[in-house]
């Protein structure tokens, strides 16, 4: 595959050098002026400033010179970056598109809302409490069973803290660790280390040996040498291992069968392993560590320099002057991080994720991601910048995290974090009370297919081979781009001050600047990409209103002439763009269309977010054509990076939409707008795309004095009790801390229902149906037809339906024959058939506990 051209390499080297000098200077320069500010109060001050900004954006008035002495204040909504608070609450994360009028009619919106309201009145599936783990026996039955338990070993009560499958730290009541000493015996160490990480092997019932990685083994009297079996028995008197708490009580809920309708929240856009991306030195700390929170939740090495003033990137992303600094201490105080705007610190630690699962989250898409240009430019790194290498590494980490959580819960397959690769597997996992983790992908150069000087850097054969590898890796949801044009599609770009930067990076990646032109007049308002600068609309004076100034017009003309003469050589000056609205001239390429076709074949869900309007429109056109031709399609828009015109089309394709979560206040309005776009042929449920760990700002607190605040404890989905989350010494409150980490989405879901007022229960119901709606979209991408009750044209005759529902068929095979059920309650599936003189006859298929058809009846 073609490498980056030499001119781009030279520019990259220049950026690397300058980046190293800038960061190096920041790390070594002494602060000017007085001493360090009180770092423990830094975040509080910043939170107050952000609260003032949020309040300023809400509709209000100021004393002034307007009519009646009042001047209205309005936000122009212009521009967008991932952490821009002005757009995180918009229907689209483009200020321009967010202001677009809704093209559906009042009658269409009313009918849509009525359908959803009717759906909420349907009978609910029965849910049951599921034990967190199997009952602990007095004598451990396997090498995995001791995890988290208190056992007597050599007369000493010890907490067995799993470091992996079958390996443990042995934690004493005085908070020390049993470790091998250099003298040949054992000692009690103050901190965990490889000398205290014991691999356990079973030699008989209740008898186990303990061996270190270097071969030394535990013997009686806490000596070391040749392995000697120890008898283990449950006991009391242990001290709990220090760890982040979930603060949720009550059993997780599951279904009465593995194939029934599910309930639960869905977040289809999270970045669980981005501690590895951009070279592995940008997101501080991993989502788990075998030695627990104290080892995992520590700040980056560069952040710890100069009393926290080495965190140049964190300062810039937080809107501070480089060198401002922050308290770098994580566990156990967390005085600065995590917080909604600290984007370089880990926010999806596994125990925080566990809290959200315990509170009702049931589908979680963890996106493998990379940006090779930013990775190359950023001076600190330990990993490859190649998108494919990074994706493979992050997928490997997801599997390792699954194993680690399994180890905490008693062995392989027993943990709550389950990576799934089909909707049928996901449904079974959710009905078992666990979290279905979908592996997704969001990179700027997916499958190694860049575009250089207008030419793709991969062949169709290479693309298909890479896609097959991703499918084998476990990828089930995929975007075609993120930040740059590539061989498949043009990108939407970024607006505001970040726009020129990503445009320059696009040049480094592709050899070309974004090809933005004024959108066609046939496009509806808001159907546009991100406004680029400089553009003729930015200019003042007569040139901005009428004929462009000579220099600007000339430069734009020269750019066009060079393009015509020399093609995409990557040597043209940065253009001055025409007046907006802007649309990228690069749409879906023939190779991109071939990729979509291959994704249909591979049953990978397509996410159109980040594509140019031209690319997304062409992609949706193609999928509509393929669906009409009988091919199954699956579309998920995961975090508000599509324009509003696309959402009704996605719903008409049977797709699933989850807007960017953002603030609870903004999310409620997004939900209300989406209620008017649903399609009567498909089940409706709603989700939220957190974009956490993906440089997406999280929800700000409404404030302790806000109307109807969340009060603790509160009752979550299916009756669990949710208290304030405690991490070490820090206690979090959604009212004052906002969505500081992923565990706070349990509280955020409660908060959005408070914000919705009288509509709160309806919003809660739609969010609770989100997991089912996502699964149904995914099932249809696997070739399962929509249900025949909502789709009368799909109804079979009563006789044909009865013949098709053969006794002994499994649930999946039944759906392949007769489509999705209208309802799936316990051991029954409900369908619609027809007979002469009656176009709607309810049919009930009865199934066994294992999901095999046992009978069919009318009604």
Description:
With 859 residues, the chain is of the alpha+beta class. It has four domains: 1-126 and 261-493 and 603-783, no CATH class; 130-255, Trefoil (Acidic Fibroblast Growth Factor, subunit A) (Trefoil), CATH 2.80.10; 494-584, no CATH class; 785-858, Beta-lactamase Inhibitory Protein, Chain:B, domain 1 (2-Layer Sandwich), CATH 3.30.1450.10. It is built from 24 helices and 36 strands. The strands form twelve sheets. Strands 13-10-9-6-5-4-14 form a seven-stranded antiparallel beta sheet. β11 and β12 form a beta hairpin. α10 (423-431) runs antiparallel to α22 (770-781), α11 runs parallel beside α15 (590-602) and α18 crosses α20 (745-755). The radius of gyration is 28 Å and the shape is globular. Mean pLDDT is 86; it is low at 2-83 and 540-572.
Distance between the termini: 60 Å
Tally of separate domains? 4
How much is the average pLDDT? 86
Low-confidence stretches: 2-83, 540-572
Which value, in Å, is the CA radius of gyration?
28 Å
Protein name: Peptidase
Biased composition (Basic and acidic residues): 75-86
Region (Disordered): 55-128, 523-551
InterPro entries: Metal_Hydrolase (IPR032466)
Itemize the secondary structure elements and their pairings.
Blueprint: H1 6-28, H2 42-57, E1 61-63, E2 70-72, H3 95-98, H4 106-120, E3 127-129, E4 150-153, E5 156-164, E6 167-171, E7 177-180, E8 186-189, E9 198-204, E10 207-211, E11 217-219, E12 223-225, E13 230-231, E14 233-234, E15 248-249, E16 253-255, E17 265-270, H5 293-296, H6 312-317, H7 350-359, E18 361-370, H8 372-377, H9 387-408, E19 417-420, H10 423-431, E20 435-443, E21 451-452, E22 455-456, H11 460-473, E23 475-479, H12 499-510, E24 516-518, H13 542-545, H14 550-566, E25 582-584, H15 590-602, E26 605-607, H16 613-628, E27 636-637, H17 646-652, E28 656-657, H18 664-674, E29 714-715, E30 721-722, E31 725-727, E32 730-732, H19 734-737, H20 745-755, H21 760-768, H22 770-781, H23 798-804, H24 811-818, E33 823-825, E34 828-835, E35 838-847, E36 853-858
Parallel strand pairs: 17-18, 18-20, 19-20, 20-23, 23-26, 27-28
Antiparallel strand pairs: 1-2, 3-16, 4-5, 4-14, 5-6, 6-9, 7-8, 9-10, 10-13, 11-12, 15-30, 21-22, 24-25, 29-30, 31-32, 33-34, 34-35, 35-36
Helix pairs in contact: 10-22, 11-15, 18-20, 20-21
Protein name: Peptidase
Region (Disordered): 55-128, 523-551
Biased composition (Basic and acidic residues): 75-86
